[in-house]
Design goal:
heterodimer; A: about 375 residues; alpha/beta; about 10% strand; B: about 350 residues; 9 helices; about 25% helix
Chain lengths: ~375, ~350
Amino acid sequence: MLPEAADAMCRHLVIAGNASSLHATGRSARRTVEESRETIAQALGARPSEVIFTSGGTEADNLAVKGMFWSRRAQDSRRTRILASAIEHHAVLDCVEWLATHQGAQPVWLDVDDEGRVHPETVRAAIDEDPDSVALVSVMWANNEVGTVQPVAEIARIAHEYGIPVHSDAVQAVGQVPVDFTASGLDALSFTGHKIGGPLGVGVLIAGRALNLTPVLHGGGQERDVRSGTLDTPAIVGLAAAVSIATAAQPELAADLALLRDDLVERVSAAVPEAILNGDRALSLDSRLPGNAHFSFPGCEGDALLMLLDARGVECSTGSACTAGVARPSHVLLAMGASEELARATLRFSLGHTSSKSDVDALLAVLPPAVERARRAGQVSARR
Amino acid sequence: MKVLAAMSGGVDSAVAAARAVEAGHDVTGVHLALSKSPQSYRTGARGCCTIEDARDARRAADVLGIPFYVWDLAERFDEDVVQDFLAEYAAGRTPNPCLRCNERIKFTAVLDKALALGFDAVCTGHYARLVEGPDGVELHRAVDPGKDQSYVLGVLTAEQLRRALFPLGDTPKGEVRAEAARRGLQVAEKPDSHDICFIADGDTAGFLHRALDNVVGDAGGDIVDADGNKLGEHDGVYAFTVGQRRGLRIGTPAPDGRPRYVLDVSPATRTVTVGSAAQLDVLGLAGVRPRWCGSPPSEAIECSVQLRAHGEPVPAVVRLIGDELDVELRAPARGVAPGQAVVVYDGTRVVGSATIDRTRR
């Protein structure tokens, strides 16, 4: 966590006060919350009244997808289609699946190209099949695995031609690429605290004032009558501090990270020539998260590589795991057209504000032997 | 040594891993995901393949401060253990899936992968002892006779045993639980697992019916005596195993009024043969696919044999004839079923094993 965010949070942890109460400490808490809301709104090009505090990115995505679906369908029962990219995070993916199973929604999974990008024409074609039946469109701002930045403003513009609202999960984007809610034209945008140096357990759904949302959590209606639950003032203060620092530092951080990342990509490709760079290959600041490097290592299992690197002090990630912890082939790579084998053979290296050239040096020192070893293990597993 | 500790989520493998850590090894915990569709919670005391078990294993690894991973072996487990189990029953034999799992999963699939990844050994919570003998490592019975698992490890070769660690072989089970509590492991009071892990409800006959009825048709048929006289009918041969007494439901009692037992199960003819306890007595047997912990014996050896899990040792003379193991029992044994393993012991030491192919009465 950023020290400024931790400090702000700690100062408020010892102050009692419910922002919904009318007495003096309540008023004080409310003032703190509203100032935080204004800070966040300003940093992200939104109006304060558009900021809805949640418990994190997952809740924000749930509120956006379910809330938009329910309200749009209530207005017109034909609106059952949900257009979402095939590479969404599970917080969106599983919402859509749940709505399909239990609420009669019809998911339309938008194809991506081999760099993991949704083309605006794909969205238009999907809408054109039956514009009146579309409840909403949801396309993430940037993919969490391969880092591809999506043309969300273009997608929003197209959807709005048909009067269809658009949500974007921007959990990976805030602090990494410029994010301006109003300029994007989006109707709803989710992000979370812990991805930008803020606290865990707090996030935001920015919802345009014209957007109708049916609540997911019912109760006191604290947030615009759309989200209930006593507000976590200390976490919100910490989040606001993190957002303002992360967005102010974004241009410089992105430039630094991109340099470091380009060096990492070049050196990994040289040291392990068969490694396949996944995602946007141009590595440009507009089209890929600056701190993201994502590879497939043919013949290796991602989780074996992760274990070998972890044992040598390098922390990285594979795709996702099921509840029991079993690694699964990445749905993102599969959607990009990779084979199941390559979709299992992936590693993501994420760079952040604490990363340095010596981290990349350390990785390169251990990666080639780890790949060699993981490949042998892969051969053993494949041999019967 | 770099040690891979297989952690089921139970108390034994947790304490085994703890002891490996304490012995100074560089230990990494791995939970083997063996079920393709794991249940959320344990029901009763069966199995080790629920999500709750994976969490228990992770919690124990966290207490020990070791890295922890889940390895997905569901496909291999299904091919090598579950399908083998079904094929054996379909052929009228009584397989031991735990033994098959040790042979093909824990000490082949897991061990091979571990070695390739740079580990030196695989550690499990089995109750058996590894002793350095004059000719290399020897597998011995555990000191706790109630928990001894050397029988289900008897298929391992010397090469596999050299890469194994069984830290619990010297300790009675009760002490292992106490040690788990002392070490702050939450699984100290977790019940032992019993029965077959992939049959969650414990209904083996029902499981076999569901899996095999499509393959070999409705398996109902006759119950006959040793001379072939029909005594009754049954709903399916899979409910029967050699030596079984309960569930025969024969209307007419035996002439001598004594209980009757299953002598033979023949899926091909759907016949279950029953007889008296005396007719169950087996005097000798032939085993196939012999495995030796060291070099194969060149002549007949005096030894004891164990013929099923938790069975009593029986004095015997065994000799290798071609690629078959011939076993002459010094005392008659009962409940000897083809498909089970015959494990050969010299005192507490495992000499080798084979799969029982046919018996002599």
